[in-house]
């Protein structure tokens, strides 16, 4: 009999690259960026429901976003909203989810998914996850989903697969690689051996907890103390005391780059990590002039632009490669090549005491 399937959805990010729509009080994962009106976290939960029951889905976020999670996912049990006292990167976040699920089940399959990615082909995604669960049940296998790259993206980390060691539809991981420059990214894509690192993982609770114990002993010790307090009157107190002391480390660096038996399962299901405003073109498509307009927009002699408005009329004349995002209290005007600078803009707002716009 196969193990119970559970999921941890990470939803603590601030989504700063989607300012001014994404704010501290309403970050990207709680926004609707698609035409169906559903928010990104709602879509993330919806697409895994064929595999995971709602009572076995956990959301890792922070206390400020608890009301948003409750509002957008009313069917989710209240105790499945895990609020981190402070952000400590992905390893402690995933560990917190693992000890909570371990408190409920002796062992189970645990899927780890970001809350702010989009998937075009849900059926293929579910099939890929199903395959990943079968691989994860074997021994101590840790499985990561690798996205088949279709262009030389420099904004993603890559994973090199050892094509000589197939494990069913998966391969053993040869190495994890940092974000490459354009020439290197081209080589990676042409080789057919590299995949985009999706940040999605599938493993048994016993496998990930053993690896945390072996490779991140201080983190494991803290998580064990937190687990002992789950369901007791001390639960919140212990969490607030112990969790901030855990080292801030990514699961990639803390476990995946050190462990053995890492499997990469290639996926080709229309994945998009929605990393910046440029993703809107991929999500919503473009018109004959390569523009993507949302809201009340008129344009003359304007091409390759993204304009996001609401009821207020936005009129554009003679623009090219420009992003305009209008909200009631702030408007962003940005060249497409400078979307990576939006975080610097927010730092500038902080330095000028304009926190109300964050």
From TrEMBL:
EC class name: transferase
EC number: 2.7.7.13
Signal peptide: none
Catalytically driven reaction(s): alpha-D-mannose 1-phosphate + GTP + H(+) = GDP-alpha-D-mannose + diphosphate
Family: Belongs to the mannose-6-phosphate isomerase type 2 family.
Pfam families: ManC_GMP_beta-helix, NTP_transferase
Domain Nucleotidyl transferase: 7-284
InterPro entries assigned: GMPP_N (IPR049577), ManC/GMP-like_b-helix (IPR054566), Mannose-6P_isomerase_type2 (IPR051161), NTP_transferase_dom (IPR005835), Nucleotide-diphossugar_trans (IPR029044)
GO molecular function: GTP binding; mannose-1-phosphate guanylyltransferase (GTP) activity
UniProt entry keywords in alphabetical sequence: GTP-binding, Nucleotide-binding, Nucleotidyltransferase, Transferase
Source organism, top-level taxon: Bacteria
GO biological process, one term: GDP-mannose biosynthetic process
Organism: Catenibacillus scindens
Start and end residues of each MannoseP isomerase/GMP-like beta-helix domain: 295-347
Protein name, as recorded: mannose-1-phosphate guanylyltransferase
Keyword match Magnesium: no
Residue ranges crossing the lipid bilayer per the database entry: none
């Amino acid at each position: 009999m196969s193990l119970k399937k559970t999921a941890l959805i990470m939803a603590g990010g601030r989504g700063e690259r989607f300012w001014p729509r994404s704010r501290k009080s309403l970050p990207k994962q709680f926004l609707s960026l698609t035409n169906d009106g559903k928010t990104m976290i709602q879509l993330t939960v919806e697409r895994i429901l064929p595999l995971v029951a709602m009572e076995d889905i956990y959301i890792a976020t922070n206390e400020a976003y608890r009301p948003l999670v409750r509002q957008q996912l009313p069917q989710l049990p209240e105790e499945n909203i895990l609020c981190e006292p402070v952000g400590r990167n992905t390893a402690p976040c995933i560990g917190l989810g693992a000890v909570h699920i371990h408190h409920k089940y002796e062992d189970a399959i645990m899927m780890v998914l970001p809350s702010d990615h989009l998937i075009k082909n849900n059926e293929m995604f579910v099939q890929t996850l199903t395959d990943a669960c079968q691989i994860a049940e074997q021994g101590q296998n840790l499985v990561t989903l690798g996205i088949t790259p279709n262009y030389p993206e420099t904004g993603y980390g890559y994973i090199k697969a050892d094509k000589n060691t197939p494990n069913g539809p998966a391969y053993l991981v040869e190495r994890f690689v940092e974000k490459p420059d354009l020439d290197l990214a081209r080589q990676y894509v042409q080789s057919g051996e590299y995949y985009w690192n999706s940040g999605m993982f599938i493993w048994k609770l016993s496998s990930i907890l053993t690896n945390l114990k072996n490779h991140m002993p201080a983190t494991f010790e803290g998580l064990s103390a937190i687990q002992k307090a789950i369901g007791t009157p001390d639960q919140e107190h212990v969490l607030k005391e112990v969790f901030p002391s855990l080292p801030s480390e990514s699961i990639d660096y803390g476990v995946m780059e050190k462990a053995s038996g890492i499997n990469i399962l290639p996926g080709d299901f229309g994945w998009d990590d929605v990393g910046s405003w440029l993703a809107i073109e991929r999500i919503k498509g473009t018109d004959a002039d390569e523009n993507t307009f949302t809201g009340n927009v008129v344009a003359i002699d304007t091409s390759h632009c993204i304009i996001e408005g609401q009821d207020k009329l936005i009129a554009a004349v003679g623009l090219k490669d420009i992003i305009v995002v209008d909200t009631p209290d702030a408007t962003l005007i940005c060249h497409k090549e400078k979307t990576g600078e939006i975080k610097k803009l927010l730092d500038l707002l902080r330095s000028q005491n304009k926190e109300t716009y964050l």
